[in-house]
Amino acid sequence: MLRVENLIYDYPGHRALDDVSFEVEAGSITALVGPNGAGKSTLMRVCAALERPFAGRVLLAGANVHDNPRAAHRRMGFLPDFYGLYDELTVAQCLDYRAAAQGIARTERAAIVAMAAARLEIADRIDQRAGTLSRGLRQRLAIAQAILHDPAFLMLDEPASGLDPAARIGLSAVLRQLAGEGMTILVSSHILAELQDYSTHILMLKAGRVVEHASLERIAAEGGASRDIRLGFAANIPDLRRRLSAITELEVITCGSDEALVRLTDDPAIRAAILARLAAEGLGLTCFAPERRSLQDIYLERMRDRPPARPGLLTGPENGEAGT
């Protein structure tokens, strides 16, 4: 769907993108993550043909977005971090104005406006002024504006910023729905727990370079079976840490009075023996489950252990690094 090749973008005295290359798989939701100043917003603006790179190119469905930006904009939607709405216009008027800006014929706009409002579940606010909407509903209106022309590719920069937990859950549901309808999505956010709810791939940037681009499924598979085990017990056990520490094959990471996180060997036989011992000691064991690796764990591990990709290489979502 989107192919980025050897992008270089400079600000005065600073290289924001340093030979960045990757491909976004059609139908995926890719989480774009990295520390402040990594180049995430610049990358999105270049991909949206709002900035022209010093070198490299961006291909959307095989076409260079900078050769014909208007044609590219008909196939993509983009919601920047700081977006504006016309507060005095109603939801319907905001959407109609955006449809006109997209070149949609007047005779088609009413149906398209209604469809966009329905997809983002703001049809019941169609006659309400944008300035009176809550933060979450304003976000939905902004996304509706970005997708009303039914783009194949959608980019969202920090879409959950400022949203309360309920609004974030609603946003996650919207993005999963759009992906289910065939839209390819690239979303930047610092809220890794939220990204984990709906992302299929992760693209990590650091100092303007790609650290890693891979599917979350592949990363999880590479990690193998989790060595960290979550233990739960039916009642409080005052000396739980001491009793667990007495098992030499087990390392206690954290421990309360009715639960603990421990680290075991990968050997299934030893794990089975430890489980049998815990059950035999009458501790009231109710949970013995591998601890799921979070997106935050993956992010911190990769950022710490892997340097940015070498310039001139294309980092694919499934094949690691391959020459361009």
From TrEMBL:
ABC transporter domain mapped to chain residues: 2-232
Stored InterPro entries: AAA+_ATPase, ABC_transporter-like_ATP-bd, P-loop_NTPase
Origin: domain of life: Bacteria
Molecular function terms, GO-annotated: ATP binding; ATP hydrolysis activity
Keyword Transport: yes
PROSITE patterns in the cross-refs: ABC_TRANSPORTER_2 (PS50893)
PANTHER family per the UniProt record, alphabetical: ABC TRANSPORTER, ABC TRANSPORTER, ATP-BINDING PROTEIN
Name of this protein: ABC-2 type transport system ATP-binding protein
